[in-house]
Amino acid sequence: MLERTANKTLPVRLISLIALCSLFVLLLILLGCSTEKNDDEVTNESVVLYVKDGAALLADIETEAVYFPYIPEGGLFSQEGEKIDVSELVPGDIVSVVGNGIMAESYPAQYPGITRIDVIGFDDVLVSQYDYIIARVFAEDDPDEVPTAQVEYTIEDVGSITVALEAFSYMITGSGDPQVSDGSCLAEDGTVLEGVPDMVINDTNEVTVSFSRDIDEASVMCIPLDEVQGKGLVADSNNAYGIVFDKASSSLTFDVNAGHLYTLDVSFENGEASYSFVVKS
Q1: Separation CA 235–CA 231 (nearest Å)
Q2: How high is the pLDDT of residue 38?
């Protein structure tokens, strides 16, 4: 009787052991799935450098890259996990930024692919090493200096993006010696220089270019990138371009198309300057 009883209970013990092993393996699988990271998702830690007019300037703590983030609606959170507005950020806030890791090649860079930003700490000491950049980007207009400009445009499902422009050619008179440069946005072989900002669109977008100083006159020249190579900026009837010139707001509004170089010639009360940007698809 004892022998039969032992033979009957052995399969039950085996089944229990198998069940426990199976449960252990299942837990390992579930844990692995719960910690798996999306390959398309990139997280970096950045410090808030400056906040003004609903826009923030950040610097990646590891790479020291300075950039304007696109903050999705409802995608900014405090340390307590509560949704906040960009105006509640302060210089020195340390934030965790989640996105696709792709930034536009402008200066400062643009980061439109952000999905979430969380405030995770504070360190205002980090901000001081970027003082010269903050002063350059957010400087008040000085009539003795070359006016700055910025391009604003909107991409569906992404939002509003701003790209800073710097003049490559200018002649500005002030209280001191004139500021003069006869530079070009093209290299000697006709290729676009690396420092020329670019923007990425799908097809056609309306852009608004605003300036730090009142503008008197302005014109826009558009050239297909495949015609720029080796030819330089040659104005002809194919480059004629219609713009909406708003003198009151010191801005220009016009449509842009992917695959083109745009050059803006602008005159001010105390001089003139030329700006360029590239539109890619």
Answers
A1: 11
A2: 56
Q: Give pLDDT, residue 110.
A: 80
Q: Where are the beta strands (DSSP E) in 100-156?
A: 109-111, 114-122, 149-155
Tokens of 41: 């998702």
Q: Report the sign of the C-alpha dihedral through residues 51, 56, 57, 61, in that order.
A: positive
DSSP labels for 24-59?
HHHHHHHHHHHHPPPTT-EEEEEEEEEEETTEEEEE
* Whole-number pLDDT of residue 53: 72
Nearest-angstrom CA–CA distance, 235 and 218: 15
CA-closest candidate to residue 223, choices 250, 253, 197, 186: 186
For residue 57, which amino acid is it? L
- Report yes or no: 191 and 229 within 8 Å, Cβ to Cβ: yes
Half-sphere exposure of residue 246: CA atoms within 13 angstroms, side-chain side: 11
Mean pLDDT per block of 10 residues along the chain (281 residues) reads: 43 45 43 47 94 86 90 92 94 95 77 92 92 76 84 76 88 87 85 86 83 88 75 47 70 88 92 92 78
Give the type of residue at 137: V
Strand order in the sheet with 55-60: 76-77, 114-122, 93-99, 42-52, 55-60, 66-69, 109-111
> What is the model's pLDDT at position 139?
67
